[in-house]
Amino acid sequence: MPELPEVETIARGVDERLRGDRIETTWFSEKPEPFKSPPQLMAKELAGRSIDRVHRVGKHIVFDLGDLQWIVHLGMTGRLLVADPRTAIPPHTHAILHLASGRELRFVDARRFGRMALETTRFAGTGQEPLKISKDEFAALFRPRKTSIKAALLNQKLLHGVGNIYADESLFRAGIRPRRMARHLKRAEFDRLHSSLQSVLKKAISLGGSSVSDYVDSAGVEGFFQLEHRVYLRTGQPCLVCGTPIRRIVVGGRGTHYCPHCQR
DNA sequence: ATACCGACCTGTCAGC
DNA sequence: TGCTGACAGGTCGGTA
How far apart are alpha carbons A178 and A263 in whole angstroms? Predict the structure, then answer.
């Protein structure tokens, strides 16, 4: 589910509404998967903490809580919802923070690929920020890779935050086939990819992310960038530029969509 | 260092 | 009406 634009949208929404609020008590489900830190420890450490700031690092949502950080990764289907306690608790709710303002922050995740943990050192993520990296750094990061450019874009140790949608969409806009070996790309192609990736991510953030099946922001509102997808999940449909049917292949175990005419 | 695969989970949809 | 298989915004670990 959520990639950089969706996580950014959620983090901004949670920050706007919960900054300055205080966590009073917590509840965690019995399912073990979502908790990298033991739930009892999180319950003890989170209670009484004020929320100084909420922001995004890669695909992670980071809560600054004094000398502690609470890190949430949403996996494929995770949601963070700011809710009125009188509203029904949705199925697959795995964590609830009860706040001093009377509201609740709920973590809901059907597939349970999401994770949460406490950090005592400043969380830096796994790679570089796609919206901050320069053209020179971008080319230097990817050129040595002995793998396809698509697999390299998905590698969170290089750039963090890019997932399947925005990898496919940025490669389309740069006119580069997903299976091309990273080390065979020309400098002009790295530059086009850098530019298309940043513009796609910024546009998606401005539209509140992509709602393909079930993504919503922290207020339960869907995004609109799915209306701007040119290849992702458009298998067999005509390319919006040239009319050639969009093709689906598997690269790095992920469904990969591209236009065989526009991407070389 | 990389490639490939299955595993982890649930839900949805197409096809029979 | 069901069943089965494929697929879905992600990541990890094992084995070549």
Answer: 8
